[in-house]
Specification:
heterodimer; A: 307 residues; two-stranded antiparallel sheet; 10 helices; 7% strand; B: alpha+beta; 6-stranded mixed beta sheet; 28% helix
Chain lengths: 307, 264
């Protein structure tokens, strides 16, 4: 059954879109990530214009992170104060990102920039995760039990001024790195159409030393707001949010996520991380290949006033 | 395939005006051409996959002798709205294909669909077609280059024509104008799936022995109808409210998904 996507201005198969949503939702539930970094490239592979894929990805992220944050709200694993500060930075970053987005689009460099960002971030994070999880798997096989490095040792971040106390996270830390991290993720969120959880979570654990139990809930909580802000900003400046497309992805996504979370309980942590790393690297390689192979035609046409 | 629009016949109008002034010389009145559109707007729905548009027309005062020899030709063109188009060219930079150069070409018809009795080169010489700007290669932006700077722009214009032809937006169909009788003809022009909305212009040209004798123009609006068209309109006219709606929809879906599919 095919449906016409009003903003992307093309016909697409309903079941393919629901399946993309469900598959990504399943993985996001399994791995505890938003899934925006998979949705946007998949949509681009499915010939959705990158500008639409990115803006619609942000819209889809709201649904999956809201759904996920509700579970953490019940478990009281959200640090609202920390989330609020990250969010303040995030909105500034998102605004900057949307501005850069329309600038690049006018210059015809948006597709390239989005692809490069994906290749760099997915490649780096996927590579690091794979390295770490393979090491952990080897040790597990050898019978050595290891735990993640305990937070506690202070680094340069803890010597910055403007300190603030975050009770839920048991932290007393400067707001500067938190605002900066929020702004950086917000910037990426609006250009890449992601929630940014895959960067936010490690950054919170390793840089800010936030206790692991509140990291995912807090990250999801603030992503809702940054993604919502990004969606509105994209709708106003670029008019590239396709609600029909986003809705189909969301429906598949929220259903898949709950089953993914269930399946995740049966796998061990390092196995999940190795699988996720493999997946992230495959997406990165696929995007990288497209950058290097010669296009069918070096020319492309954009008509004024059309997507 | 649905028939998109039905076109009426135009009752042949006699060219009385010209006849009166040439009273003493019994010269025949000039040949004329008419086309009839039964509607001034066509609505396309969201599932539109392209179709053929049939345009009926009539010619008058044809010389029966020339007509019998088949030396009258008709070209019918349906031209989409004109816009500025930006053409970009990718070049290899550090191994990566990057858009480097670009040209803005003014007044480019988004679509251009041509139907004619015979291949264009058999109807009239190239110079006539160029003079009348008939055919995609005779658009002002695609003209033969004048200088070195112009010739580089010409490469972009040529690439634009190729891309448009490949996407089906520019189409030429020899043999798709047929005479049904001595005076009536039927033209079948392509409306591709990606036909742009807006005001299109239908033009008909009559040629005799390779010489242009008469032409006629009519306009035709193409609009999108249905829910999807409405969504696209709101996203442009009321973008802030549209953004808020998208957010609200996502929140609602996320909440419902949690309630319905909850597994923990």
């Amino acid at each position: 059954m095919s449906i016409y996507l009003p903003i992307a201005e093309m016909s697409a198969n309903v079941f393919v879109l629901l399946a993309i949503g469900a598959a990504v939702g399943f993985l996001s539930g399994l791995f505890g990530v938003g899934g925006g970094f998979l949705i946007t490239p998949l949509l681009i592979f499915y010939n959705i214009p990158p500008a639409v894929a990115v803006a619609t990805g942000a819209n889809q992220v709201i649904a999956s992170s809201f759904s996920g944050a509700l579970a953490h709200f019940n478990r009281k694993t959200i640090d609202f104060k920390l989330g609020g500060v990250l969010m303040a930075g995030g909105m500034v970053g998102s605004l900057g990102g949307v501005y850069v987005f329309s600038l690049l689009r006018a210059k015809g460099q948006l597709d390239l920039f989005v692809s490069i960002l994906y290749v760099v971030f997915l490649g780096t994070i996927g590579g690091l995760m794979l390295w770490e999880s393979i090491g952990a798997l080897r040790k597990a096989r050898a019978g050595v039990t290891t735990s993640l490095k305990k937070p506690g040792q202070h680094n340069w971040i803890h010597r910055l001024p403007l300190k603030m106390r975050f009770r839920a996270s048991k932290l007393f830390v400067s707001v500067i790195p938190i605002l900066a991290l929020g702004a950086f993720i917000g910037f990426l969120a609006s250009i890449m159409g992601v929630g940014g959880g895959f960067i936010m979570v490690p950054a919170m654990i390793y840089l800010l030393k936030v206790p692991t139990n509140v990291v995912i809930g807090t990250s999801l909580f603030q992503i809702i707001f940054v993604a919502a802000f990004t969606t509105v900003a994209q709708a106003v400046t670029n008019q590239t949010v396709d609600v029909v497309l986003a809705f189909l992805l969301m429906v598949g996504g929220v259903a898949g996520a709950q089953y993914g979370a269930k399946a995740g309980q049966r796998l061990r942590g390092e196995q999940i991380r190795a699988l996720l790393a493999g997946l992230v690297l495959i997406v990165a390689i696929r995007l990288a290949v497209d950058l290097f192979i010669e296009p069918a035609s070096p020319y492309s046409v954009v008509t004024q006033g059309m997507v | 395939m649905r028939v998109l629009a039905v076109f009426t016949l135009v009752i042949p109008m006699l060219a009385i005006l010209t006849g009166a002034s040439f009273a003493q010389q019994p010269e025949k009145p000039k040949e004329s051409i008419q086309i009839g559109l039964s509607t001034d707007t066509i609505q396309i729905t969201s599932g539109f996959t392209g179709t053929d548009l049939t345009i009926f027309g009539a010619v008058d005062n044809l010389d029966p002798e020339i007509s019998r020899q088949g030396h009258y030709d008709v070209i019918v063109v349906l031209e989409g709205p004109n816009r500025t188009a930006t053409v970009r060219r990718k070049e290899r930079f550090l191994g990566i294909w990057i858009n480097r150069q670009s040209r803005n070409l003014p007044e480019v018809p988004i679509s251009y669909s041509m139907a004619m009795t015979r291949p264009i080169q058999d109807i009239a010489p190239e110079s006539t077609m160029a003079q009348m700007a008939i055919g995609v290669q005779n658009f002002p932006f695609a003209r033969t280059p004048q200088g070195p700077r112009d010739s580089r722009t010409h490469e972009f214009a040529t690439a634009l024509l190729e891309l448009k032809q490949k996407s089906g937006l520019y189409k030429e169909r020899p043999g798709s104008v047929r005479f049904l009788s001595l005076n009536l003809f039927r033209a079948s022009v392509a409306l591709p799936a990606n036909v742009p909305v807006g005001t299109h212009t239908a033009r008909a040209y009559l040629f005799r022995n390779g010489v242009f004798v008469n032409g006629v123009t009519a306009s035709l609006g193409i609009v999108k109808s249905g829910l999807e068209a409405e969504i696209s309109r709101i996203s442009r006219d009321n973008s802030f409210a549209f953004g808020l709606f998208a957010v609200a929809l996502a929140i609602l879906t996320g909440w419902l998904g949690r309630v319905i599919f909850r597994r923990d």
